[in-house]
Amino acid sequence: MQMYATGAASSDDKTDYIYSKPLLFICTLHLILVMLTKISAESFDKTLNGQKSALYFLNNNNNTEIAITNYGARIVSLIVQDKNKQPTDVVVGFDTLAGSLNSTETYHGAVVGRYANRIARGRFSLNGNTYELSINNPPNHLHGGSKGFNNQVWKVQEIKNQSLNFPIFQNMVKKIILVI
């Protein structure tokens, strides 16, 4: 099998690029196998800051499946049927917890907060008091700062039927409930 490429192709010389069908087949097959590989719950089973992270799977009768980790309440995968009734993952997520931890995009797939968006210059006034916040997106405070929801290991309070319950604060009623 020959395979090479030169810097610039000329319209006169068709030999600059030699098409390799076996290589294309191998690359396509590899991509298909990667797409069909199910995400492993074990690859999310870690301890972060003394809290155990995990991966949870919810599914329904419509062949929809969602994978959610309690680290940042991240949606890792959402498999739905495409127009040809084939299962398709429509979420760009990481297959391991290490992928999320090592990503340069810290909000990838995560719940953001306490605040979504930027708080200018990392401060605000409320009832005559000025509050200073951490600056994590200079010169601003972005999505709850360095201790935002995206960096927390959430306690899963309840798993029943097709839902997960993530209480935001232990002593508050506010919670995120994911239902599929």
How does the helix and strand content classify structurally?
A: alpha+beta
What value does the average pLDDT take? 76
Strand share of the residues?
Answer: 25-35%
Helical fraction equals 10-25%
Low-pLDDT runs: 1-36
3D shape: elongated
Distance between the termini: 49 Å
Rg, alpha carbons: 23 Å
Q: Compute the number of helices.
A: 2
SSE string, helix = H, strand = E?
HEEEEEEHEEEEEEE
Number of strands: 13
Largest sheet: 4 strands, antiparallel
How do the strands line up in the largest sheet? 3-4-5-6
Give me some keywords for this one:
180 residues, alpha+beta, 12% helix, disordered N terminus, 4-stranded antiparallel β-sheet, 28% strand
Q: Can you describe what's shown?
A:
The chain has 180 residues and is α+β, with helices and mostly antiparallel strands. Among the domains are: 1-37; 114-147, no CATH class. Helix content is 12%, strand content 28%. It contains 2 helices and 13 strands, in the order H-E-E-E-E-E-E-H-E-E-E-E-E-E-E. The strands form 5 sheets. It has a 4-stranded antiparallel beta sheet with strand order 3-4-5-6, with no helix packed on it. Strand 5 (74-81) and strand 6 form a beta hairpin. The longest helix has 16 residues, at 21-36. It is elongated and about 55 Å long. Mean pLDDT is 76; it is low at 1-36.
Topology, please?
Layout (H helix, E strand, L loop, with lengths): L20 H16 L10 E2 L2 E2 L2 E5 L5 E5 L4 E8 L5 E3 L7 H6 L15 E2 L3 E4 L2 E4 L8 E2 L15 E3 L2 E5 L7 E5 L1
Antiparallel strand pairs: 1-2, 3-4, 4-5, 5-6, 7-10, 8-9, 11-12, 12-13
Structure, briefly:
With 180 residues, this protein is α+β, with helices and mostly antiparallel strands.
